[in-house]
Amino acid sequence: MQKIGKSEFNRRRVNFESDESRFPWLSMLLDSYAIIDTAIESAIELQYRSKQKGLACQNGCCHCCKTHKDIPVYPHELVGIYFYVTEKIKMPVRETLKWQLQFFKQTDFCPFLISSSCVIHILRPTACRQFNVFGTPCAEGEDPFFTRRDDVLTPNVNHTNQAFLTVLDFYEIKDDKKNFIQNNKIHTHVKNLRELKWLQLIKAMNDYDLKAASL
Ligand code: SF4
Ligand code: SF4
Asked: Closest residue (by CA) to atom 8 of ligand 2?
């Protein structure tokens, strides 16, 4: 397996230093995202060369966030989303997000999409990080996985597994970690972001706001 270089990893690693000392799982999550992002960067480079097509994805291009019915998210990623939304998202986006979460229906597009941007971009799930398209940007309503599979990036499974290995303490898996990954047991924990209810997250945001106002 091609190794993830330390300098690329460090360049990609987001740090929330004081928060990481409060939440040990956060360091694991940020490590795993740095592995994913570094691996994706080199996979894009490799596949760009073989396909001879540039990456279509760019800021503000967001049909995928509206079209995808399945957005896989793991429990360790959900706690990251809860943390980031509750403690880091500021007004006025915060109020818009509360509104979107409050009235979210499964048929709506992803509730974290506001003004064509992902408001949890730093802590977006692995699946969102790994969905990249070459050639032309997706048309409205198009899922290129079905319309032109060859233009969709295929992530490196070994690197994805390496990223999952870093978060297994979150699941209290201490022994035989490789077996847990290789037998796909981690995937038994996956949920679909579009099927989740978000009232608990709104409550966490409101509690945090109340506490901040009383300081
Ligand atoms: S996956 Fe498609 S819609 Fe999403 S950013 Fe890439 S090109 Fe744009
Ligand atoms: S989490 Fe962000 S990137 Fe993923 S579907 Fe939602 S808005 Fe798009």
From this structure: 65
Q: How far is the CA of 35 from the centre of ligand 2 (A)?
A: 19
Distance 61 CA to ligand 1 centre (A): 6
Between the CA of 215 and the centroid of ligand 1 the distance, in Å, is: 42
pLDDT, tens digit, for every residue of 50-100? 888 899 999 999 999 999 999 999 999 999 999 999 999 999 999 999 999
As a whole number of Å, the CA-based R_g of the chain is 18
In DSSP terms, 55 is beta-bridged to 134
Nearest to 30 by CA among 123, 169, 134: 123
User: Long-range contacts of range 113-116, CB-CB < 8 Å, 24 or more positions apart?
Assistant: 113/62, 113/65, 113/66, 116/60, 116/62
Give the model confidence (pLDDT) of 8-29 as tens digits.
899 999 999 999 999 999 999 9
Question: Maximum CA pair distance of the chain?
Answer: 57
